[in-house]
Every structure is written in C-alpha cells, then in structure tokens.
Amino acid sequence: HRHLLGIGELQPHEIAFLLDEAEQWVAVNRAATKHDDRLAGLTQINAFFENSTRTLLSFEIAGKRLGADTVNMHVAQSSTKKGETLIDTAKTLNAMRADLIVIRHQSSGAVQLIADKVDCPVLNAGDGRHEHPTQGLLDALTIRRRKGRIAGLVVAICGDILHSRVARSNILALTALAAEVRLIGPPTLLPTAIERMGVTCFTDMDAGLDGADVVMMLRLQNERMDGGFIPSAREYRHFWGLTEQRLARAAPDVLVMHPGPMNRGIEIDSAIADDPAVSAVTEQVEMGVAVRMACLDVLTRRRRGVEGWA
Ligand code: CP
Fold first, then answer.
1. Which of 81, 75, 76 is nearest to 102 (CA)?
2. What is the pLDDT of residues 103-145, one digit of tens each?
3. CA of 32 to the centre of ligand 1 (A)
4. Ligand 1 lined by 221 (C-beta under 6 Å)
5. Cα–Cα dist 150/216, whole Å
C-alpha cells in the first residue's frame, strides 16, 4: 500500500503487522531519550481541515521523534479561506515535495481525492463519517496489550455509531481480528441494516453490555447530525450513558475506552473515565503516538530504500 486511507483496505495480517511494529515504539516512547531519526531528511505535512488535539499532536510528535521535518498547515490562516480548492491545495503541497501528507477533513472521501493527486504517501487522520484508521489501530493495540488478545473478545461500541468514523474503523479492525462486535445506541444513530458490517445491534444498553469484555464509548457528534433527531443530554445519559450501575452488567474485568474528546456526564460518567483500573482513556492516547510512528515508518520504507510492505 502506498497510502493509509482506511482499515477497510487492509488484510488482517497487515493490521496485526502494524500493531506489532507499534510495540517497539511504545518502549522507545517510555525511554528518557525518544529519538530514532530514521525519517531524517523527510518532510511531513499535517493538514487538518477540522479541529483536533490528540491526532494532530500525536502525528506531529511521532514525526519529530522519528526525525522528520514536520510542519503543520494552519487551515484557518491558509488560502483555503480565500476559496482555493482542495485539489489545488493538494497540488501545492505536492509541489513543495512533501514526503508524507497527513490529512483530516470534514468530508468523507476528501483524503482519497488528495491521495490521487500527490506523489507521496497520504495518511487519513479522519475524513467525515468514513474512517479514522490510526484510531482503529491504536484502539486495537490498547485492547491487545490490556487483554493479551483480541480474538474472541466481546467488544461493545456504544453511542453515535452512524456519524462515527471511529466506530467504522474499529468495527473493521476488530472484526478482522476476530472479536465479536456489538453496537449499542439510539435507533436513529445506529447504521441501517445494509451497513451493519457483520455486527449485532442493540438499542437497549443493558442488554448490549451484558458480559462485554470491552466497552467503547463514543462522543455524541452534534456537528454531524444533519438536522436529524438529537436526544437531549439528559435523555441520552438516561438511556445510553455509561454509569457505574450500568457497567456492572459487563464482564467483571471489563475495559472501558473512549477515543476523546469526552462529554463527561453525558455518554460517560467521570467516576468510570478517571478510574485507571477500568478506563484505558489515557493509554489510548499513549498508544496513538506509537501507532502513528509505526505508520509513518512503514509507509516511508520504500522511499527510504528499505523493504516496504505488501
Ligand atoms: N480521537 C480523536 O481523533 O481526537 P482528536 O479529535 O482530538 O484528534
């Protein structure tokens, strides 16, 4: 693969390979000196057309720890605000001879459009409702490290599934690695039958949580509702919020995850999110840097004259 646009384009062994590659970077990131410098001389451009804290910073940190010249395009101050098209922006970044371009965009498919126009690897940092592949990988790595395996685990993904690129990438990654995936949420925020991708859907939170090994909570994405039904915060917490009482339905050693940013007191209570015995929220962020280092390394191998992959 030249690009990383979605988990859907990867074979199960390729997903496992990226997770294995990320393991070495977890150890490097925990050391006092974190530099490797194998990407020295390469230029990485991060172009985020949508807000981000975790993904943007971790891609920047990942590139810097690997020695790349990492620059961020500040979209709010860029010529896209003067009406420059996405394709012209892509051609402009390409003319600067970038070696890697990381894109987040509000439109599904925009990252593919850019990938078709440039000569270097493109990494999808989240495009609309489509995919967020490095989130799927970092979540899979977090689960694998905490549980020792992924195959056979019951993973309940709860909340606004319909608008969630995180859910889509996780469903693809976890089903490829043989987990049993359940989706739980309001009927209006669950995918239609045609898009269910081999998972079981629940609208009753207690039923969906029953015996789950991993519970992944999602943010209610008000910015993507397109005028559809939005439950009020109170209604949402009442029916689909993760409370300690509800979590008791899951397996006794349940692992709780959230990609962030969290709406505390709506989809997840702070008592759960802040309990390190149960919650993997900060570990997910840590794994995000390692996974992104692995992806930057692997996708530039051919460019660096190192044997590539697949
Ligand atoms: N999980 C995630 O993508 O977070 P950011 O939007 O802060 O990057």
1. 75
2. 999 999 999 999 999 999 999 999 999 999 999 999 999 999 9
3. 26
4. no
5. 14
